[in-house]
Each structure stands twice: as C-alpha cells, then as structure tokens.
C-alpha cells in the first residue's frame, strides 16, 4: 500500500479549494433563489393589478338590485 503523506500546506490548499467550490455553488444557488423570488414578486404584482380592476361580487349584487329596481320604475 502506498504511503501518502500530506503536508499541512497541502492540506490547507485542499481545504481552501473545497471552501471555494462550496462558496461558488452557494452563490449560484442564491442567485437562482433571488431570481425565483423576483419572478414571484412580478407575478404577484400582475395578480394584484388584475384584482384591482375587478369589481367585487358584493358590489355586483348591489348594483344588480339597483338596476332591477330602476327597471321596475321605468316599466311602470
């Protein structure tokens, strides 16, 4: 069996490379998460804009009753 001797400096270089890879992977992961969050925010803003332009159901019911009352008066 081979006798592998690792120096402290060699070990330090290996650990440094490992941390650099982890840092790179985490940075890429966080960038993707940030992009996904931005996409979700944009989607939510679009939904909110659409909802702002939609009459609420109770308003529609109230308006329908008022129109029916006006139609009855107009027919009489």
Descriptive account of the structure:
The protein is mainly α. The protein is built from two helices and no strands. Helix content is 84%, strand content 0%. The protein starts with 7 loop residues before the first helix and ends with a helix.
Q: Report the sheet with the most strands, covering strand number, pairing sense and barrel closure.
A: none
Envelope shape: rod-shaped
Ranges where pLDDT stays below 50 over 5 or more residues in a row are none
Percent of residues in beta strands: under 5%
Mean pLDDT: 92
- Per DSSP, the total helix count is 2
User: Termini, distance in Å?
Assistant: 108 Å
- Percentage of residues in helical conformation: over 70%
Radius of gyration (CA) equals 33 Å
SS-derived structural category: mainly alpha
Order of helices and strands: HH
What is the strand tally? 0
Keywords: Coiled coil
Coiled coil: 30-73
What structural keywords apply?
single chain; 76 residues; mainly alpha; 0% strand; rod-shaped; coiled coil
Brief summary of the model shown:
The protein has 76 residues and is mainly α.
